[in-house]
């Protein structure tokens, strides 16, 4: 009978090798210790750098003085001027705090920052009031 094979006769024989084991290479304890020291050092440096940056950043209560939304929802040139004044004041505060050597220097930097914020806010409110977006409140009496 030509062309008729037993079942499985055409299959190749299976290879009998040990299975390939893929895993982490054996690392000595000295190398692991050295890697651990490097990681701890990097984490410490990052923590110190972050704390230094955090010191130069304005505290959360300061941001309460910054307007988050434009007056009457109108985004005009006065709003963008106000935002740029606020950003400029923050940049100047960061520079001043980095250069500050004493507590007095830090207080002066914060005082200047608060003054700049107050000035920018009052200029913005005055311009918006002139354009009629802010209703002035007050009492007017006419007569003698």
Written overview of the protein:
By secondary structure, the protein is mainly α. Helix content is 58%, strand content 0%. It has helices at 29-56, 60-63, 77-99, 103-130. The longest helix is centred in the first third of the chain and has 28 residues, at 29-56. It is elongated and about 125 Å long. The model has no long low-confidence stretch (mean pLDDT 80).
Instruction: Give the beta-strand count.
Output: 0
Which structural class matches the secondary elements? mainly alpha
Helix content: 55-70%
Estimate the global geometry from the Cα principal axes: elongated
Mean of all residue-level pLDDT scores: 80
Question: What would you say about this model in short?
Answer:
The protein is built from 4 helices and no strands.
